[in-house]
Amino acid sequence: MAGNFYQRLIDKYEPMTEAAFLTLVSVRKPIKSDDIPQKIADLTHNKLQLGLGTLFTNLHAMTKDYLMTERVDADEVHIYEITGSGEALLTAERERLKLLVDIIENEDLKAD
C-alpha cells in the first residue's frame, strides 16, 4: 500500500520542476518560511531564485500532498519540514537526474 502511495506521488511530480525540486530540498531540515528564499539562493550559489508566488504555491501543494509538514509556532512563524514521502520523491528524482547525467557523459556531450 505504501509503495502504491509513493508511486502515485512520483507519477504526479516527476519530472520535477526546478522550483518544486528546490522547494523540497530546502525543507530537508526544519526551516522558517522566511528563510527558504535564502536557502535556495545558497543551494544554487545565487544563480536561481523563486518568486514568492511560486514558492508559496509549491509549499501549499506539497504540504497538501504530505511531502512536507507545516507547523506554526507561538509567534505565528510557519516552519516546514520534509516527510518520508518527500524523501522518497527526492530519491526517485535523484535517480532520474542521474540517468540524464549518465547520458551526457556516455554521449560525450560537452559544453561549448
Automatic annotation (TrEMBL):
InterPro entries in alphabetical order: WH-like_DNA-bd_sf, WH_DNA-bd_sf
Protein name: Helix-turn-helix transcriptional regulator
Species name: Lactiplantibacillus nangangensis
Highest classification ranks of the organism: Bacteria, Bacillati, Bacillota, Bacilli, Lactobacillales
